[in-house]
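# nightly structure sweep
# worker-07 picked up a monomer target from the shared queue
# config: single-sequence mode, recycle default, output format = structure tokens
# input follows
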Amino acid sequence: MKIVEGGHTSKRSQESMAKLLKPREEVKKAIAARIRAGKDLTAKAEIAESTGGYEDWLFIFAKWREETAAELTTLYEERDIGREFTAVTRTGEHSSPRFTFPYRKSALEVGLFWLDRLIGRLELAVGESPDAIAIESLHPEIYAKCRNLYEGGDYAEAVEKSFKLVRDKLRALTGYETGSEAFGKGHLYVDGAAD
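# output follows
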């Protein structure tokens, strides 16, 4: 359910939206790989039916299901897509592998359909945080020394520490602590800057 207040999506609605941990194309490729593995499993279902290898197929299905759910949790944050996948592919145990097989085969089909729909919804997912990308564009020394503070939510301390790094570098280069002193008293000049 989407809640709109004054033309903006509410915080409650934003928290329930799918948020990507990786670039959209990488997520799409990973999901497509899980679909290919599932389709391979569909082909193996025919072998299981013709040879009576139900127990082997059920083992392979369980492994595919587990690996797919695990992969999905590495692709999305704050929304447990992996658990949703596990829920839509869940079936009960029956008296023997032969009787469990048709239910799991059906669950495989549902899982493949669900994964295909997940790819279709990728454009609706919230991409990686622009803030997380922007911090990586900082000077390497600032990034290395302030990243953990920033990622831990200590924004004020991260800004203060980065300011001190810049001030120390300015002092080492010019002997002055502030930009106005360096450019004024120190006659620092930036090539191409207006006079």
